[in-house]
Each structure stands twice: as structure tokens, then as C-alpha cells.
Design brief:
Layout: E1 2-6, H1 7-18, E2 32-38, E3 44-51, E4 55-68, E5 70-75, H2 76-85, E6 91-97, E7 100-104, E8 109-113, H3 126-132, E9 136-141, H4 142-153, E10 167-173, E11 176-182, E12 186-193, E13 195-196, E14 202-207, H5 208-217, E15 224-229, E16 233-238, E17 247-252, E18 271-276, H6 277-287, E19 298-303, E20 308-315, E21 319-326, E22 329-331, E23 335-339, H7 341-349, E24 355-360, E25 367-370, E26 375-379
Helix pairs in contact: 1-2, 4-5, 6-7
């Protein structure tokens, strides 16, 4: 194999793919990136692929000069470091043979020992999954998918013993795709309209790591993303034609049953408060300045008569804070309730609409945050005694 390619897109592709490669494993091939060069009529193409046996990613680079087609399997971290270090070279030459890969710049040459490309494990192919019979397919714009992932991923558990909540639930029903995440103390739900194979329905849990990689792949909001689900995998293909996608991400699904989240969403809230999103974000951030690990809660005192909110916090070592906010609208009785300020601002960061609604019931009942018809966020209160 011998290819000459622009360094900038090569570095971007290697950075993405090397993030998927395993860092510690008894199988050294899983720490590698597989390079595949093919000649085409107009221009050559270089594909880069990596997997940790749970998640796999393939990125394709077009407009590459391929002098000799072929494959190579080289350590991902070292290849990434080399390409990154050659910052003064606009192009790089990669040549391989007999498990030895050479990367050449204008004044430098690096030789990397690799492995036989045949030792690299097979990774899922979108077209084969579709032809083999998937549980369902979905297509939606990359920007829409990025939005609903961002609005839920932050609420997913991290290394929780209840393994099923260490990911995000994908639920397809008719023409809607619904994503749900929870860590037991809060729950985020976001929906989007889709197109796909008829009225196919499915539900699966996608690991948080895979969705983090997917968000890094998205750079064009209008680019189509094709999604296919099997019994144990989900595959995302980015590009107009899934059979010729610029990137394909596949992931094993999280095993287990997701909690019955519909039961967690309150339906009888009788206090409804309207906020300016930016005003509330600023107030919560400032009130949180005088909290610590022992007193992480911020008290929120709502008064109906003058439509005001006072946020307060107290730390024995540091002091106390009081922040006042004018409310845009208020329905219901006065109430005092405590929340983890980080949980509130996590949601406000992913809300793009200028107004947010909070629905409350009692000081010991969860709060419900809404933004438009397609985003719901439930937060458990904290005890401030």
C-alpha cells in the first residue's frame, strides 16, 4: 500500500478512529487502526477503521492519491502522534509492506511495526445488516439527532450497578424517535420526527460512549444519518447513501430492561412557572457558588403574589448567597423546594428555546422541566434541612 494524502483531514480522521481503539487489551490488534487504500476512476480513497470489540468506527477519506492499493494494521496511538507531530507538512506519504508501515514527511520518516491486516476482527457493514434483516431503520438529519442525543446523554448513569441505565434508550414508535436517559436521580426525554422503514417499532439501549463518539462525527446539521438496529447492535451511517457513507459507527447494545420511565414523569403538577432560560441559568450558577459537597442544594422559594423566585444557598465554612429572579409567569401556590444546581444547569445548557417551564407539586416531589413539546426533564428534590 502507498498513499499520499493531505495531513489535516488525515489527522481529523485518525483522531476520531483512535478514540475507539482499545487502550488496554490482551489482543494488540484492538489497539490498532486498519488502513485500507483503494483506487477509483477519479481519485483514490483511504479508509480508517478501529474497534474495541464493543464499538467500531470506519471513516473514509476521498481525494487521496493512491499509488498502490492495499491494507495495513498499525498502532492507533502512535500513528495519531506521528501525524499530529508533522504539523509543518501539508501532505504525508504512508507506505506499508510486510507488517511495516512507513510515514514520510518532508524531512522525517517514521517506521511502525504492525500486524497482518487479516488479524483485524470483522466489523459491521450497514448494507449487509439491512439485507440481513434488521429490527428497524431510521433516517433523520444529523443536526436533529445531535440535538436529541445532547438533550439526554448528560443524564445517563456512569458505571452504575444497574447496568441498563448506563446508556440511552432509543425507542422508535411510528414516525417518532424517542430518547430517554436516567441516573436514578433525574431523567431526560427528547423526541424527534423520523423517516424510515414504514411503521417499524423497536427499543434498545445504546452505550453512552458510542453516542459520545457519534456526536464528534457530526459536523453538518443537514447531513442524513441512517440508523439500523439488530438484536444486539446498532449501526449509524453518515452520508446521503448509507452504502457509501463517509463514516459508519457500530455498537453493541446494553443488555437489560430500561426502567419504566413513563411512571417517573409526573402528571399532576399544579404549580407552573415560566422562566427566561438565560436569567435562570445565571441565577442558579451564582447561587451555587456558596455550596459544597455537604450542602450541594440550592433552595428555591417561589412566591405567587409578586411572581418572584429567591434562590439561596448556605455553606458553614464560606457563607451564604441570595439571588432574586423575576418570573415570566406563575400559576399555583407558594412553594419552597431544593435542587442540585448542577442538575438544573445541565438541562438549561441543552435547551435552545428562550423560555423554559418548570412544573411543581410539593417540596418533596420531583420537579418537571419542559421546553417545547419534545423535551422533558425530571429532577428529584434534595433535602435542605
Amino acid at each position: 500500500m502507498k498513499v499520499i494524502c493531505d495531513r489535516a483531514p488525515l489527522l481529523e480522521a485518525i483522531s476520531l478512529v483512535s478514540g475507539v481503539a482499545a487502550s488496554r487489551t490482551p489482543k494488540p490488534q484492538l489497539t490498532c487502526v486498519k488502513l485500507g487504500a483503494t483506487k477509483q476512476a477519479a481519485a483514490g480513497e483511504l479508509s480508517l477503521a478501529a474497534t474495541d470489540a464493543e464499538i467500531s468506527l470506519t471513516v473514509r477519506l476521498g481525494s487521496v492519491k493512491v499509488e498502490e492499493a492495499g491494507e495495513a494494521l498499525v498502532p492507533a496511538q502512535k500513528l495519531s502522534q506521528i501525524v499530529s507531530a508533522e504539523e509543518d507538512d501539508p501532505t504525508l506519504t504512508i507506505e506499508s509492506g510486510d507488517d511495516l508501515t512507513t510515514v514520510k514527511g518532508a524531512d522525517a520518516q517514521f517506521k511502525l511495526h504492525g500486524y497482518p491486516p487479516a488479524d483485524f476482527p470483522p466489523i459491521p457493514d450497514f448494507a449487509k445488516i439491512i439485507s440481513g434483516g434488521s429490527r428497524g431503520t431510521v433516517q433523520l438529519p444529523a443536526g436533529v439527532l445531535s440535538l436529541i442525543i445532547s438533550r439526554t446523554l448528560f443524564a445517563a448513569a456512569r458505571e452504575n450497578s444497574r447496568y441498563a441505565i448506563n446508556g440511552v434508550l432509543f425507542k422508535k414508535d411510528a414516525k417518532k424517535l424517542e430518547l430517554v436517559a436516567t441516573d436514578g436521580r433525574r431523567l431526560a426525554l427528547s423526541r424527534a420526527a423520523t423517516s424510515g422503514s414504514g411503521d417499524t417499532t423497536f427499543a434498545c439501549i445504546v452505550p453512552a460512549k458510542a453516542l459520545g463518539v457519534l456526536l464528534k462525527l457530526i459536523d453538518d446539521a443537514d447531513e442524513p444519518v441512517h440508523l439500523a438496529v439488530t438484536d444486539n447492535q446498532i449501526v449509524f451511517a453518515l452520508g446521503d447513501d448509507p452504502a457509501d457513507a463517509r463514516a459508519v459507527l457500530a455498537s453493541n447494545l446494553v443488555e437489560g430492561a430500561f426502567p419504566p420511565y413513563e411512571d417517573v414523569i409526573p402528571k399532576d403538577q399544579d404549580i407552573r412557572v415560566g422562566f427566561d432560560r438565560d436569567v435562570l441559568f445565571s441565577a442558579v450558577r451564582r447561587a451555587a457558588l456558596l455550596t459544597n459537597e455537604e450542602s450541594r442544594g440550592v433552595r428555591m422559594a417561589f412566591t405567587a403574589a409578586d411572581k418572584k423566585l429567591e434562590l439561596s444557598s448556605r455553606s458553614p465554612e464560606m457563607g451564604e448567597a441570595h439571588v432574586g429572579v423575576d418570573l415570566k409567569s406563575y400559576e399555583g401556590d407558594d412553594i419552597e423546594i431544593g435542587f442540585n444546581p448542577g442538575f438544573i444547569n445541565d438541562a438549561l445548557k441543552v435547551i435552545h428555546e428562550p423560555e423554559v417551564m418548570i412544573e411543581l407539586k410539593a417540596s418533596n416531589k420531583p420537579g418537571l422541566f419542559r421546553s417545547g413539546p419534545d423535551f422533558v426533564y425530571v429532577v428529584m428534590p434534595v433535602n435542605l434541612q
